[in-house]
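Figure-free illustration: sequence to structure, shown twice.
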Amino acid sequence: MKIELFTTVHYLEIQPRLDGFYLREFLIVQDYRELGPLLDPDLINALGIIHKNQIENNPVMYLMQYEVDDFVIGGEGDMWTEIISTLLLCFWFIKDNSISNAAIFIREVEPNPKIVLRYPNRTYNAKGEISNTVYNRDELNSVFMLIPKIINLRTVSNLDFFEKTGLSDMPMPLDVQYHPELFTKVYRALTHLETLRETKHISRKIFHYVAILECLFTRNEPISMEKDINNCKKNVSNEKEKQFNIAEPVMEKVQSITSMVRQRVVSYLGGNLKEKKEIANNITVAYDIRSKYVHGQAIPGKLMTKTSQIKYALRMDSLVRVIFNKIILTDLEFFLLPEDEFESYIKSKINP
């Protein structure tokens, strides 16, 4: 079947103004009237006053008469939400933003005209706010260069679900059946990036920034807490000691992960002593906020204030962006290695 798809893009400004530009197959124009006959005026009028106002006052993202499988329209239109969100996510790799799209209209052109409506999630910047972000022509070019790289990292091409879309190199949705052996550490990190951008809660954002670092810089294996606890029980002599000591090996392992992530990030990014200390301190504070938040405890002292947490959210956002860009642009082959080979690589950064 043939479809056309359009949605509005919010909180994106292009300066100086462009008549239109493409994100892959999607044409973005700053005024829907620039689409001319491509977008049916009668269709716009039929959408209702709220949707019509959005289209008239925001850039429009348009996909013209694309040939797809029945599968997409038939209950799986959320695939298109994932595709568009992945394309818009690429803007984050250049600078922080709250760019998102509104309702997605998927119109079946042939054989039976009808419209399917999808609502995406709102995105927020590192401050948990929404505001316009300006991109110039050079920054747009950087976004265009990143798009195929990000799409490839979000693709698992041998899943039947993915292949049915007819888009052999578009991003895979997150709600497919989970196949952990197919997901790289970079893919897992990207899912956390997408999730943190959907919340305005600062502590929750910091939780996901830390999770990104753990995805990228730790080995992909579970912490066997049950095994640790059973070993601990064997090594203590009475019930009171058991209650007191069971948590200790678990806490030691958590602390060792914190130290390992901090050391590996600092070694990977390098820099002078001042820069390394600043990175290490930001990671330490982020871990502290993450730990208190996850365990339902009060965040201590000055970190309790939203202003203070925003400061560290902005620092972590910047740090994670630098890491992602370095990995994607220069070191991707190492972060896609099997776990044992990756461990050898990252350890060589620490002890060259």
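We now fold a second protein in the same way, so the two outputs can be compared directly.
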Amino acid sequence: MPADSVLELHLRIREGGTAGGLAYFDGQSGTHFSWVAGRNGGLGLQVSPANTSTHAVLLTGEYTTTGEQGSTDRDVMLASFFFKVTTAPSGDERIAAMINNAGTPQSYLELTSGLNLKLNGGSAGPTTLVLDTWYYIDWLYNLDTNTEVVRINEATEFSGAPSGGQVRQLQLGRGASGANPGYTAVYDDVILQFADAVASVGYISPYMIKRLDPDGDGTDDDWTSSTTPDEYQSVDEINPDSDTTLAISSTSADAQTFTLEDADDAGIPGGSTILGTIYAAYVRRTSSAQAPYELRIRSGATVDDADQALAPASYGLRARVDVVDPDTAAVWTIAALDAVEIGLDHPNSTDTLRCTSVNFQVAFI
């Protein structure tokens, strides 16, 4: 995967077009979403649209250097994900869409009652899907050289020219009101690549994504825990639990990092090629002032802090993507993953900063 591409592993659930809670593929669910067995021993997200409403999962766009969600529409998006249908619709139903910063779909995929895909309402594709079977979908939307290609299991299903404008986000599920034919499908292991030039993205062979869980307090250990003996125990839950358990800092220049379980324990075999990592933290402030924070990674001799930002009043997800190891500027190794620490720095402020959950995921072949 190119060094300037963006790895995107988390989801924002939307019910009826209204932004809801944040979720991971190992996380929480909404009314029309549930967590079921995934393709690689983890969990996959099951989507079951009902009535005529929007029931979709929104994958956010790129992150800024502070860890906040970006808002820049791009000429090129390459979306890769795994997909299976467990119940077919009785008519054409939207299963995925590429949208712009305004939330307007620019291109979309539909599933027919015969279990074929359609691109933008066109003719059904040649591949008939089999129920309860995983398929690898990659979808290149490319205004740079005016091409759009959808592949199933690395074989071209659709090819033509895009008919929309720039894009920034990906919806999985019914991203527009439907006629209520319904369906049930499961999505897993999503990677998005964004760019202004198609040369900056690249197809990826079928891959896996695994989460490394916090298993100890790290080198930096200045914060306090709300209810648990060690800080890592307050942030290691899969479902963020708001203020039930959390790590807290009210002291300027306090930093806290966490060690992670070994890659082998998480199911990443030795010899794997690491495509990239994403580290995300749920943070908020407790005072009217906006507490600053920096997302920190300790790798080898390098302490790498993201640019400083201000914490929101309510818990929000902040994330950073590292396609290469910050210590070496080269592809991550298993040894580096086994030694990495993730955490937060609380610079230049005594305003209270809270973190309720951290999440570190690894994409690999």
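Summary for the second example: The CA atoms of residues 162 and 194 lie 16 Å apart.
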